[in-house]
What does this fold into?
Amino acid sequence: GRIGYGSLFSYATDTTYTGNVNSVTIFKDNSIFTRNSSIYVVEGTGADNIIRFDGPEISNTTKVYSANLGTSVEIHDISFSDNSKAFITRYFDSVLVVFDIQQGKIIDSINLSHYGLKTGADTMRIPYMHKSICIDNKLFVLLKRLHSNQGNPVPDTAIGGLVVVVSTDNNSVLDTISLVMKNPSAMEYFDGYLYILSAGLLSSTTDGGIEKIDISTYTNLGSICSESLFGGNISDFVLVSQTKGYIRVSLQTQEALFEFNPLTGTAGNQLPVIENVCGDIVFDGLYVYVCDNRAVNPGIVIFDPNDNNMVGGPISFGTGLPVSVAIVKLLNK
It folds into this structure.
C-alpha cells in the first residue's frame, strides 16, 4: 500500500495483517498500481515519474526503472491492456500516453484535446482525463471536462463529463459516451456495465450521483442513485456484487463509508467499522481494504462485505497516513 509523506510500504495479507518495515522514499504526491507481481508507483506533479518494482518486496534492489512522462502533467491512472502495454492518463495534458511497461518508455500517444472545453478564460483545450479501465480490447477513459479557471479547474455549469472509448489494438478513438452529471471522479466495472460516480459541485450535496453505462452499446442508461440519499458530497466507491457497494461520503465531521445497492439505487447504513476515509477503497474479491484516518491507530482497515465486520487492521505505518492501496498477486502461489 502507499502511504503519505513520501514513503512506500508493503504489508502482508496473511492472518496477521502486519505492515512490513521496509520502505523506499518517493515523491510525496504519489499513487500505486499493480500488474501481476509488479508494482508501479506514480510520482505526481513536480516529479511526473513512473517507477516499477518487481515485487512482492519493495526496495531499491527490486526497482526496475524510473521513467519520466513530462513536466507538471500530473499522472492520474494506469490501465494495463496486456503484459507489455499500458495506457496512462495525464490530468494537466491533452495527450493519452501509450506505455511499454517492460521497457519503461512511451511508444505512442493519443490526442484527446478535441474533447476539452475552450470558452471564456480558457487558453487551451485540456480534457482533464482522470480514471481509465481496460475491458477486453477497449479502454474507457473518464474525462472531467473542466474549465481551467486560471489554474483552478471547475466544472462547467451545463456540460457533464465524457467517456472516450479507445481501441487497445490500434490506439485509436472508437466512440464517446456523454455523462449527464458533472465532475466525474470514480469508475467501476461489473458484469457488462460501467458505473461512474460524479461528485458534481462541492457546494451542492444534491447534484452528484452514479450513472450506469452499457459497454456493449456505449449507452448511458441514466442515474442509478443520487448523492442526496447520503446527506453529503460523494467522491469514491467500490462494488463488491450486483447488489452491494460502498461509497465515500463527506459529512460535517468525517469522511464516512456507506453501504448502497447499485441494482435498486438505495442507500444502506453507515459503516461504524470505518471512522474517517482518507484514501483508497479496494475490493480484492474477498475483503474490502480502506485507508482510515481513525482517531486511534490510523491505518488500513480490512472488513468482510458479507457482514461488514473487521477482519484485519488497522495496519499502521507510523506517523504517515495511508492513501492508496494496491493488491499484488503472487504468481507462484
